[in-house]
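dumping this here so i dont lose it
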């Protein structure tokens, strides 16, 4: 199993839908090319932002195939595969077609609200069967449970194929603790755009971003500045994006980033219920930022 060498700016890519609600693979191809041409370092297919919970198994396979075809080995690809039944997830890991992908991103189990020991055992079960280097994904705002720095570091030392974490807890102290205590080659990515640049300045490896899906060049510039410890430039760009980040999440994710994608002409801002399309007010509020920061 090869190592995972990724840094700086990854994007949690949206899944575009046409007016009838079907996956728009042509638009997905445009988005993939736009992001790679803009200098994005790696892409995540079917994370939370990709509305993965609303897609069928067949639709997911088709989306993965589009990523592999359109990427054409230009940047590393990460496959989102999560669930809240460890046994079922272990079985799916054993039958995954991972050709063209470099890593798996797997979210902490949601709804069940497991203990820290349960989280540990869940990831160790995945570690035993994963066909690719795996990143854990901690997003307590969606799952109902925070995976602590202590548990994350414990897994980092005990697992053979879990190589990093996407931490979207927006807790700088927790992120800093993981960076300080985990093995030096353990990857620590922010999953929270607002704290991504500050966490990278503290020694993190980068971000798996929502906002970079709509403002890739400028946000990557801030991330690269943070990686090179250019604190002044990094903080300046971070300040530029604060009002945009607030707008992006005003009507939920990925509603805001789909609004931006529509304004960029990449796709229509269609979502699957229970999510609904962005309001005219949100589109109007985002328009000046799309024009200014791209």
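and the seq i came up w/
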């Amino acid at each position: 199993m090869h190592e995972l060498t990724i840094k700086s700016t990854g994007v949690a890519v949206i899944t575009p839908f046409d007016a009838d609600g079907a996956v728009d693979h042509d638009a997905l191809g445009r988005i993939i090319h736009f992001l790679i041409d803009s200098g994005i370092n790696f892409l995540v297919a079917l994370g939370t932002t990709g509305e993965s919970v609303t897609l069928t198994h067949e639709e997911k396979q088709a989306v993965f195939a589009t990523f592999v075809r359109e990427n054409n080995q230009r940047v590393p690809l990460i496959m989102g595969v999560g669930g809240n039944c460890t046994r079922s997830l272990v079985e799916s890991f054993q039958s995954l077609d991972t050709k063209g992908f470099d890593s798996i991103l797997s979210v902490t189990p949601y709804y069940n609200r497991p203990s820290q020991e349960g989280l540990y055992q869940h990831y160790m079960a995945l570690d035993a069967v994963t066909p690719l280097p795996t990143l854990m994904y901690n997003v307590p705002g969606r799952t109902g449970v925070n995976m602590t720095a202590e548990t994350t570091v414990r897994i980092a030392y005990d697992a053979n194929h879990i190589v990093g974490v996407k931490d979207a807890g927006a807790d700088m102290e927790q992120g800093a603790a993981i960076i300080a205590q985990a093995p030096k080659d353990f990857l620590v990515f922010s999953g929270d755009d607002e704290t991504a640049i500050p966490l990278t300045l503290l020694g993190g490896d980068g971000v798996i971003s929502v906002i970079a899906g709509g403002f890739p060049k400028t946000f990557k510039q801030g991330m690269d500045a943070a990686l090179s410890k250019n604190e002044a430039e990094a903080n300046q760009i971070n300040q530029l994006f604060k009002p945009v980040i607030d707008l992006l999440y005003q009507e939920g994710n990925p509603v805001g980033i789909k609004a931006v994608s529509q304004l960029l002409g990449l796709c229509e801002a269609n979502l699957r219920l229970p999510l609904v399309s962005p309001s005219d007010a949100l589109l109007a509020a985002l328009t000046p930022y799309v024009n200014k920061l791209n």
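The longest strand covers residues 162-167.
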